[in-house]
Amino acid sequence: MGRWEPDAAGRLREAALELFGERGFEQTTVAEIAARAGLTERTFFRHFADKREVLFRGSEGLRDTLAAAIDDAPAAASSLEAVTAALNAAGAVFNREFARRRQAVILSNPELQERELIKLAYLTEVLADALRRRGIRDAAARLAGETGMALFRITFERWVADLAERPWTEHLHETLAELDELLLAAPRA
Amino acid sequence: MGRWEPDAAGRLREAALELFGERGFEQTTVAEIAARAGLTERTFFRHFADKREVLFRGSEGLRDTLAAAIDDAPAAASSLEAVTAALNAAGAVFNREFARRRQAVILSNPELQERELIKLAYLTEVLADALRRRGIRDAAARLAGETGMALFRITFERWVADLAERPWTEHLHETLAELDELLLAAPRA
């Protein structure tokens, strides 16, 4: 796959992000992405099914990272410890500059926002499934999965927006502490 | 609107749910829904933009219920107390039998599932916006909104699936207690 073009996928991704930023996602064609990258359309389609996949290709990797981290968590780890390990593992594979540019494109297009929602809903299931494999009962696994993805969304937003470039783990830790505080003020009736 | 046909909207909704359940959402036409309800297509379109709207019409009401409950929460209430009041107010307007039938239709169709995800993402924003109106800072409002919708999803699932028909408030209370427990086991490093 693309062996004659070193890092063709990376060059196509960079070209696509540039063009999506300059012209908008809808206004950009695959032909333009390939031309900007100095490659052919045929090479583009060897790497991506369509221009949207340039933005969503990472989903499978993210899924595997999350699931593996939960599988690898010590048996004694609580659900939330396992989920936190998964979120930290996810953060370790993200590139903030790419994430930032990708996020800007996603937020500019309702169709991409929908696709992103579907991706995140799917990842919620991935977390819950991995917890079930640890013997967590279904209802608790679902709750921990939903809570994990709420933490993920907020951490991701803060980390992407953070001009001080503080690391993912700090943002996750703070979000977790705030969630804890939120719950401390919960109704106890 | 529909003044010659008492409760035309209710009859159309009932007919649509029956047909969606019998034939599937995609296989059901507006003409069939109107015929089953003993009404005309024209009457259908006076009440609903399309057959999908039969399932999503309630979203605006739900939005208003959530927002009003947060607005009406005592000034001293914490974010989570306000959100819990909103979730209880939402539960009070749901009809379990309708919710159950609607949920079965939604789960049978990917396009409807996507629409439902979009609705829930929107309601997350509604919660966060209402909290901002109470002077909660943006980051905390977003977290409380996400947490609130995680609670909503889990409570809703359990309440719909509960053959013992225990009330919404009990399910919400339990889900909240479990979230609390989940957080107690959180990493504190």
TL;DR of this structure?
Helices cover 75% and strands 0% of the residues of chain A. By secondary structure, chain A is mainly alpha-helical. In chain A, helix 6 runs parallel beside helix 9 (138-161).
Protein described:
The structure is a homodimer of 189-residue chains. Chain A has helices spanning 8-23, 30-37, 41-47, 53-56, 58-72, 79-93, 96-107, 110-133, 138-161, 168-184. Chain A has 189 residues and is an all-alpha fold. Chain A is elongated and about 55 Å long. The termini of chain A are far apart. Chains A and B meet through helix 6, helix 8, helix 9 and helix 10 of A and helix 6, helix 8, helix 9 and helix 10 of B.
